[in-house]
Design a protein that fits this description.
The protein is mainly alpha-helical. It has one domain. The protein has 6 helices and 2 strands; from the N terminus they run ααβαααβα. It has a two-stranded antiparallel ribbon. It is globular, with a radius of gyration of 12 Å. The two termini are about 15 Å apart. Bound molecules: iron/sulfur cluster. Iron/sulfur cluster binds next to α2.
């Protein structure tokens, strides 16, 4: 799958997760959750002004908290991107065929 399709799928699943939970499969929810729990402790997690800006218009805090099991972890990953590939959270973890550039997931 192309990078563009991954990005589109990731953002679509992310928005559906927030607005229309019944449109996101349990498989995608579990996939996103397990990935987010790995990324939140990764040294490559990088603060991103662009993604912070995106999150001022799109809902994210509650989604990330639900994904990472606890509020502290949610605050840690919110407004961040992957420093290896530049992809923003939380969309990256919602794309089924997306890969971790360091093969952590
Ligand atoms: S995708 Fe991989 S390299 Fe990037 S932040 Fe997550 S675990 Fe780290």
């Amino acid at each position: 799958m192309s990078k563009f399709k991954n990005i589109t799928e990731g953002w679509t699943n992310y928005l559906n997760f927030f607005y229309r939970k019944d449109h996101v499969t349990p498989e995608i929810k579990e996939l996103a959750k397990s990935r987010a729990n790995i990324c939140k402790d990764c040294p490559s997690l990088t603060a991103s002004k662009m993604w912070t800006l995106v999150e001022t218009v799109l809902p994210s805090g509650d989604v990330i908290e639900q994904l990472t099991d606890d509020k502290l972890a949610g605050e840690k990953i919110q407004g961040y991107k992957c420093g290896e590939c530049g992809c923003g959270f939380p969309a990256k973890v919602f794309a089924k065929n997306e890969k971790c550039p360091l093969n952590k997931w």
